[in-house]
């Protein structure tokens, strides 16, 4: 599985998650604030997700995916 | 708590009628009650300091809950708007815990090396033991809780 790697002899998950939130938000013509209000988080959190500084929880990832009418795997790419 | 309930909680966290979080309400309340007690006992300087601290903390919390407030402002004021604020606060407090353990150990060693008075020595031992026990209990709880 490509999202896993061995580090210091232990199985670990790679931390970088690429999101399509910015792209999907742009397609819907939404501002960061509008999307933040829709999914119940702060504008800074949407910005942090888009710039890769924050990996959302499963709950927030599901709600973002639902908002875009998509699936979590289509919105977030963990395989690089 | 189901996923939808968690989401509703997340969505409603900034729309509550009370102007500050329960933690800030308790902190402001303690400051005000302490200030009143100090004024009654004639400790006007301590009372004024507590009152100003309570007012400052309360105003900070109220302003941090505004829609235009920044994330650092919210985390510093204990007014978390969402999961990212809470995650940042947990990491910040964890860093404080590490520093407290290191400083506690350093203080304990200093008190053992330098022959200080028994009260200071036992206080530093007590603080370090309390921090260590708290750490183990917190680890036990959160590992069990998952």
What does this structure look like?
The complex is a heterodimer of chains A (80) and B (146). Chain A is α+β, with helices and mostly antiparallel strands and 80 residues long. Chain A has one domain: 434 Repressor (Amino-terminal Domain) (Orthogonal Bundle), CATH 1.10.260.40. Chain A contains five helices and four strands, in the order E-E-E-H-H-H-H-H-E. Chain A has helices spanning 21-28, 32-39, 43-50, 58-67, 72-75; strands spanning 4-7, 10-13, 18-19, 76-77. The longest helix of chain A is centred in the last third of the chain and has 10 residues, at 58-67. In chain B, helix 2 (22-40) runs antiparallel to helix 3 (44-64) and helix 5 (83-113) runs antiparallel to helix 6. Chain B has two domains: 1-81, no CATH class; 82-146. Chain B has helices at residues 3-12, 22-40, 44-64, 71-76, 83-113, 118-145.
Mean pLDDT of chain A: 86
Terminal CA distance of chain B reads: 15 Å
Low-confidence runs of chain A: none
Percentage of helical residues of chain A?
Answer: 40-55%
Reading off the top of the CATH hierarchy, the class of chain A is best stated as Mainly Alpha
How many strands, which pairing sense, and closed or not: the largest β-sheet of chain B? none
Q: Biggest interface and which pair forms it? A: A-B, 14 and 17 residues
The counted number of beta strands of chain B is: 0
Count the helices of chain A. How many?
Answer: 5
Largest sheet composition of chain A: 2 strands, antiparallel
Element layout with pairings:
The complex is a heterodimer of chains A (80) and B (146).
Chain A: E1 4-7, E2 10-13, E3 18-19, H1 21-28, H2 32-39, H3 43-50, H4 58-67, H5 72-75, E4 76-77
Antiparallel strand pairs in A: 1-2, 3-4
Chain B: H1 3-12, H2 22-40, H3 44-64, H4 71-76, H5 83-113, H6 118-145
Helix pairs in contact in B: 2-3, 5-6
